[in-house]
Amino acid sequence: MRNWDYVVIGAGIVGLATALQILRARPKAKICVVEKERAVAGHQTSHNSGVIHSGVYYKPDSVKARTCVEGSHLLTKFCVQHNIAVRTCGKIIVATHPVDLPRLDELERRGHANGVNGLRRISKDELRELEPHVHGHSGLLAPNTSIVDFAQVALAYAKEIREAGGEILLNTAVTALHTPSSHVVIETSKETLAAKTVINCAGLHSDRIARLAAGPKVTTHIIPFRGEYYLIKPQRADMVRHLIYPVPNPAFPFLGVHLTPKIDGSLEAGPNAVFATAREGYSKGIVNGKDCWECFKYSGFWRMLSRYWKTGLGEIHRSFSKRAFLIELQKLAPSLTLDDLHPGGAGVRAQVVMPNGTLCDDFLIRRDDNIIHVLNVPSPAATASLAIGSHIVNKVLDLDHINSVPEKL
Questions:
Q1: Segment holding 79, helix H or strand E
Q2: Distance between CA atoms of residues 289 and 272, nearest Å
Q3: Which residues 6+ apart lie within 8 Å of 216 measured at CB?
Q4: Which of 299, 303, 15 is nearest to 170 (CA)?
Q5: Number of continuous H segments (helices) and E segments (strands) in the chain
Q6: Handedness of CA 61, 25, 384, 41 (dihedral sign)
Q7: In this structure, are residues 91 and 242 in contact, taking their beta carbons and an 8 Å threshold?
Q8: Beta strand 146-147 with 138-142: parallel, antiparallel or unpaired?
Q9: Residue 66 in this model has a pLDDT that exceeds 50
């Protein structure tokens, strides 16, 4: 049994950022990251749109708002220091219908409250001048929004961890957790480890890792949602210069189908948001019986369906109908045609659904004795990764010094 000060479970961008921030705070700490895949950043980190969000959407004083604004600055600085390409293209959130205008007002209020630099309202005429192919009644311009390849960022985090003396154990799945005394015993597929503190950053499997440690008292469940993308054909990849987003549905914590210029010069359209029949199901044909059964036996899943069934049917329709997907896109860019859309990739979002059927809208990080569980960190987690790491470090340092009351999972 090898002994460590800290063990981080999961080598996605949040787990790696957390390990890196611990090493920055405690350079002499013995730390390792345990990852079940053969490489780091294999799931949510490398299956997203690559946007460094500015912090417009999130409720002021929420963990998302605080960490997104801070994290975007930290991430951009990190990329400059490590020669990782970042392109500042700006984002325009477009009101495509008059009913969107009050919602756009609220987003503007939130953005200013969150300290988003340069945020300003633009008129219909200015929108048309900035983006001739985009239709809208008004827009909200966040000029400092950027794009990056988050897989490259994660690799740079991993490199710095190793250079600082940390270890990353790949092909190593966690199978059991025990807390016999003041330390945690971590059984894995390769060896048994012991640590003073464990940080669960297992992403799509974070609730399962939490149940290994805390059992039935874990009431949160991950429901996987697949987001599917189309690529705009190369001849039209320059049709927009900014990230073009609709005003999102305030009842649903997804941002809607949008147009995203990529760091490689391509233009991506999407995603939708459909229930995924596997936690790692990046296509419609992948079905995992265990994953489905865990969802179907969870009462919160059925309560969620009763709340969002109409929205869900629309998302499913767009998943199977290219024309329906196009109609949604044409609300933003009317000149797009079916011929412009080519199949793209997909990602799976780890979304916590509460027992009452609501979708957890903020980051959810809980402490249970000397284990910290990072349970809900969807978008903008990649943007906020270093700030989330610092937030977790504060909990770690608190654990090291104070025998505090465990938080409810």
A1: helix 63-81
A2: 23
A3: none
A4: 15
A5: 10, 20
A6: negative
A7: yes
A8: unpaired
A9: yes
Are 10 and 200 spatial neighbours (Cβ–Cβ below 8 Å)? Answer: yes
Q: Would you list the DSSP string of 181-212?
A: SSSEEEEESS-EEEEEEEEE--GGGHHHHHHH
Nearest to 43 by CA among 156, 178, 162, 202: 202
Secondary structure (DSSP) of 275-299: E-SSTT--STT---HHHHHHHHT-H
Cα separation of 204 and 289, whole Å? 16
* Torsions phi, psi for 315 (to 5 deg): -65, -40
Convert the pLDDT of each residue in 7-25 to its tens digit: 999 999 999 999 999 999 9
Q: Which pTM does this prediction carry?
A: 0.94
At residue 66, the 3 state secondary structure works out as: helix
Quote the CA–CA distance of 50 and 264 in Å, as a whole number.
11
Contact call for residues 242 and 130 (beta carbons, < 8 A): yes
DSSP string, 365-404: EEEETTEEEEEE--TTTTTTHHHHHHHHHHHHHHHHH--P
Share of the chain above pLDDT 90, in %: 87
Name all domains of the chain by residue range, CATH numbers in brackets.
2-45+151-219+362-401 (3.50.50.60), 221-353 (3.30.9)
CA angle 137, 141, 143 (to 5 degrees): 160
